[in-house]
Amino acid sequence: MRDIQMVDLKTQYLRLRHEIDPAIASVMESSAFIKGPDVRHFEEELQDYMGVKHVVTCANGTDALQLALMALGLKPGDEVITTNFTFIATVEVVALLGLKLVIVEPEPDSFNISVDAVRNAITPMTRAIVPVHLFGQCADMESIMELSAKHNLFVIEDAAQATGADYIFSDGSRKKAGTIGHIGTTSFFPSKNLGCYGDGGALYTNDDEIARKLRSISNHGMKVRYHHDDIGINSRLDTIQAAILRIKLRHLDQFNYSRIDVANRYDEAFAGCTGLSFPGRVSSSTHIFHQYTLKVKNGKRDQLKKHLESKNIPAMIYYPGPLHIQEAYKYLGYAEDAFPVTSALCNEVLSLPIHPDMEEDQLEFIIQNVLDFFKI
């Protein structure tokens, strides 16, 4: 049996090297390392896949979030609502721009932002909502967009963990995660479902003016070289990374189907285990399982993690602490016990290995060792 990885990037590369190596070599031969043709081609191909009018690539997913907030013209003191249960990038860009961060609880089963909590947090100073499509399935976007329309708010989707997931509206229509709000953002960090071999990111929008603004701000505020219409930053996707992503985009759906197969196996295996609660799946979204995240009951999460690691099975905690108790965000003034749902999740969640290249013996070994722990 091969060593078990949380994400087996090497095996995936070996499977695709006959496509990836020539793509990289082509960029090296052209020496068009910045804004080469592959960047434009990738944006066009991702537009087609996502069913969105504009894709604007950038240097990473954190920049994508920052660019989105800048393009919408938010001012210091404007309130931005997002979830307490997410990676730090979602909130740090809000703080860096001098906006007022308002964090709310997630749903305990899907892990995604609670619409009721968002509704209760809206004030006259609220300007934007940032739902995070956590672990591979969409937040309740139909309800969030209704709140947006009612209160005249912007919606920025953090879709970094859900590339390829579909949101299913009440009328049966579908849109890709990240294409429903005013702007969607994503990351191409190597471990993502669509990941490159370095850093990369992108933004999605159907609004022509927002797209123009995003392209300008991400390129030093320039529409025409050396003419600066906006205060901008330098955030570009390297051509080599774009060439790699063009290859991997062609395989994305199959990669996601493979992840779903693994998740289904886990669900079936753990269905009778009273010590575990497996990931809730909502009817309004497909789930492409960027992470397979269990809740471990009765305070045994850390013990299970140590047990698995003793068998050379990696297991990760996403996320080990609520944002509001992080040293950098204590200035927000929230009481330590202000978010009981988030705090409970941080004490219970454990993510198991999941990726498109898992082999049957690896999967059986993981499942058996999880179940053995609860028989001890």
Arithmetic mean pLDDT: 97
Annotated CATH architecture of the largest domain: 3-Layer(aba) Sandwich
CATH H-level superfamily title of the largest domain: Type I PLP-dependent aspartate aminotransferase-like (Major domain)
Q: How do the helices and strands follow one another from N- to C-terminus? A: HHEHEHEHEHEEEEEHEEHEEHHEH
Can you walk me through this structure?
The protein has 376 residues and is of the alpha/beta class. It has two domains: 232 residues, 3-Layer(aba) Sandwich (Aspartate Aminotransferase, domain 2); 122 residues, Aspartate Aminotransferase, domain 1, CATH 3.90.1150.10. Helix content is 39%, strand content 15%. It has eleven helices and 14 strands. The protein has a seven-stranded mixed beta sheet with strand order 1-9-8-5-4-2-3, with helices on both faces. β6 and β7 form a beta hairpin. The protein is globular.
Short précis:
With 376 residues, this protein is an alpha/beta fold. The chain has helices at residues 9-30, 37-50, 61-71, 89-96, 115-121, 141-151, 208-217, 239-270, 301-310, 340-348, 360-373, and strands at 54-58, 79-83, 100-104, 126-130, 154-158, 166-168, 174-176, 183-187, 201-205, 222-224, 227-228, 276-277, 292-296, 349-352. Helix 1 packs antiparallel against helix 8 (239-270).
Task: Please render the helix and strand layout as text.
Blueprint: H1 9-30, H2 37-50, E1 54-58, H3 61-71, E2 79-83, H4 89-96, E3 100-104, H5 115-121, E4 126-130, H6 141-151, E5 154-158, E6 166-168, E7 174-176, E8 183-187, E9 201-205, H7 208-217, E10 222-224, E11 227-228, H8 239-270, E12 276-277, E13 292-296, H9 301-310, H10 340-348, E14 349-352, H11 360-373
Parallel strand pairs: 2-3, 2-4, 4-5, 5-8
Antiparallel strand pairs: 1-9, 6-7, 8-9, 10-11, 12-13, 13-14
